[in-house]
What does this fold into?
Amino acid sequence: MSLKQIDQCGAEIHVKIISEYPELIKGSEAISSYVSNKVSDWQRQTQQNLLQNFPYDQNESSLACWKNIVESGLQSVENFGHSTQNFLALCKEAKRPANEVFWHKQLDQHQHASNKTQRDLPINAQLLLNEWQKATDEIRTEWELDQLQVFREQLLKQLEDFLQHLQELHDQLESMGLEPGILLDLSKGKLSEQDIKQFKRWAKYMAENQGVKSLCDMLGKMRQIELSEKIERVQVTRVLSVPKPDLNSREEIVGIRLGRDIEYALPSELALLSDPDTSLLFDLKFVESRLMCFEMQGIVPVLEYHDFEEDVQVQEQEKQGPMVLCVDTSGSMHGMPETIAKAVVLYMASKARADKRPCYLINFSTGIQTLDLGESMGMESLIRFLQMSFYGGTDVAPALRHALDVMKKDDYLKSDLLIISDFIMGHLPANLLKQIELQREGGNKFYSLVVGSSFMSDRIKTLFDQEWVFNPATSHIHELVNFNENISQRSD
It folds into this structure.
């Protein structure tokens, strides 16, 4: 099968997929590239499979050997008989009709033949070669067409299943007010169908659980960085009215041209009609479009879009600050609490990417795993991170120490820290509490989300600026601690 046929089949698959998911593919360059790459890989693999996996390779080798014998004139009754048997065996195995009686008769005649019959051996050998080649070509063509159809259906099913999951996830993310293109960027890593299904489960949980959705909306509005003003250079687009020549408008004379428009002919040309002798010259110039005519045009206003750079004064409170998220995956969080925690992290990380906020993720139990969700990180990295679980004991101290170090970096100055846990853990060291106080004085904020109905009643109240409790059983949210209010009450 020619490469052209495989390419044509790949192009048809591409067109079919685009027609089934036009908005999804045309709306995302990454998804469009993913489909194109899948089709290109399929074309290369299909060509390789068709070349390497033909079930009658041994027959083709025997045919090539017989062709060399016939073309060199070295055919004999013995090799003619052997080749005839190979040809008939091929037809039988491939379930193709073959005139066995004829070929057995020819073989028998040559084995018990006179000299005259032996002189017919080259003719029969060439006939065998032609029939054998024709049968082999037809068998290969039919096999390749069957295989191409199988490979085509496999690719279509793979792409359709994958894109269907993406479409459902796309719709879920849009319904939650998230930007699908930020997370569905397949150019950053490779996602399996299982990854997409896992992502859908988290997204579906957020979309269908009103309590979790309200919780995510509330956490997404965590405080903005302090009010300040600065000058930013921004690009603005303005619409300008620009005068443009319009050849279809005949408002004023702009020159002279050759033509046959009598209504715009110069008076000197029209004067040729006043004399019978010169009227012939006018007719000739008219036929040849060589009359001197006025060039007419008009001016019309055309709206054009032009980009300009301007300096504008903006307030920093219009932008939200960096975010550090710590999620507890210890044994006590196993099950629904961990699902809720990871759904919240998914939502918060998605909002951070959409708002271009630096976001740092920490997965903790007694140890930690981290992920800096920068611009180079795509959905694959986020899913891999969220799939990790420790299922051991709970020690938030290592996660807090690491978070405090991160909050000293330039990209995470004055950042918000959110810890999501059931807070079934021991007390924090005094030196760590002191570091938290110092960080708070530097403009950092500390928040916590308790997932579960139980929590430490003797927890140090000054650890968090604000704290919420989410009960998975009732989907109710309660504000537990507000640090600033506590300080005011203690001062009184």
In short: Residues 1-175 form one domain. The radius of gyration is 40 Å. The mean pLDDT is 78. The chain has three domains: 1-175, 229-313, 319-491.
